Amino acid sequence: MINSIMGMTPVVFWLVVTIVLAVFEIITLGLSTIWFAFGALAACFAAMLGVGIIPQIVIFVLVSVLSLLLVRPLSVKYFNNRVSRTNIDALAGKKVIVSGDVDNLKGTGLASVDGTTWNVRTENDNEKILDGETVIIKRVDGNKLIVEKERQI
Question: What is the pLDDT of residues 84-123, one digit of tens each?
Fold first, then answer.
């Protein structure tokens, strides 16, 4: 089957597959194709040892799946852990002082964050926050900051 693909031997075929997948991984840096490159490399070694085509395919699939399931969680934990929150995501957790009473039912309440004025709302419509109180931003919902009162210890 693989012998008939453009006259390549199985070793050359698996080597080409390995290189293509590795190059694609380098370009995308998404930890998505490297696992299949490992599988293709293992199949290439099997082909070098004279293993038949069906076992080569089985080795490719097994090594790809096992490396995906076993190694990926570790690599994601150690290599993709330097993501810093930016823009709107960076607002969550910040403390701000509200201007004007925050009342969801009346639609009132504002806060200034980094020079931008935002509408402020609470998660609970019955909760009121008075002008000048410090709140913590929980999340951003459209053009509104969803906040909670700062807990005093």
Answer: 555 677 788 888 999 888 988 888 989 888 888 889 999 8
Ramachandran region of residue 95, left (φ > 0), alpha (ψ -120 to 50) or beta?
Answer: beta
Domain boundaries, the chain: 2-79, 87-149
Q: Angle at CA 128, nearest 5°, toward 125 and 131? A: 140
What are the Cα distances from residue 1, in Å, to 12, 56, 118, 147?
13, 12, 64, 63
Check if CATH label 3.30.70.270 holds for domain 87-149: no
Q: Taking the CA atoms of 48, 50, 51 and 57 in sequence, report the sign of the dihedral they define.
A: positive
Are 109 and 100 in contact, with CB atoms under 8 Å apart? yes
Tokens of 120: 């402020």
